Known about the structure:
- The complex is a heterodimer.
- Chain A is an all-alpha fold.
- Chain A has one domain.
- Chain A is built from eight helices and no strands.
- In chain A, helix 2 (24-51) crosses helix 3 (57-77), helix 3 (57-77) runs parallel beside helix 6 and helix 6 (96-109) runs antiparallel to helix 7 (115-122).
- The longest helix of chain A has 28 residues, at 24-51.
- Chain B is mostly helical.
- Chain B has one domain.
- The longest helix of chain B has 24 residues, at 2-25.
- Chain B starts with a helix and ends in a 5-residue tail after the last helix.
Amino acid sequence: MKNINKTTDEFNKIVKKEQPAVNKVSNFLKAYLVGGTICLIGQIFWELYMTLFDYSQQDAETMVTITMIFLGGLLTGLDVYDEIGQFAGAGSLVPVTGFANSMVAPALEYKQEGFIIGIGANLFSIAGPVLAYGMVSAFLVGLIKTLF
Amino acid sequence: MVGIFLKAFLIGGLICGICQLILDNTDYTPAHIMVSLVIIGSVFTGLGWYDPLKEFAGAGVTIPVSNFGYILTKGVQEAAEKDGLLGLFKGVLDIASAGISASVIIAFFMALIFNPKE
């Protein structure tokens, strides 16, 4: 058993050495650039909704979220978002467009398994944990603030 | 006017860049990153930090998924002030309702319309 473990360790070391070096600086910059640009686009929509359509600040903010979810979902369906993701990494993951992507992509992937188990369940493979922890966290923060 | 666009780019980009560093240097998956961001958004809201951040950076902090944590928690806080303990449950989706409903509805139709690539 000891020998096997040792071999695994050695194997992992070799794998690590042979893997192409991850350029962390370049990845950081790419994520920064794309993520920042998506936020900039969101800000442009925000100003547009407030000036052109006369939404209140709160409603304009919500409209921006819906717009970005629509765009993220559409680009995922068109198979463009994954291409952006290859380049941008977290830059396309962190914005709310990435949240839409995390719902549409697995739902599409498992579409052939049917409407319920395929699309219905897989919409929430990542969104489920996000919403569960978001709600629990919101509840706990609210509870603490109410009690103290 | 131009300032808010620049700040949205700089702050939003910075959040993405930091998350990329975490992905590259740890074993955490994208799902971990998203869940952590939402929890951080929620805690920051509780500490009263998210509103000033939003004031400063606009879409730079409302486009990242941490914003879900913000709107969920803000809804709870506002409802709790009004309805006490019941508000802790009533308020969760008060502000977040539109964003979460839109995600589910839009994502469903996108999955319906499009087909996976070969």
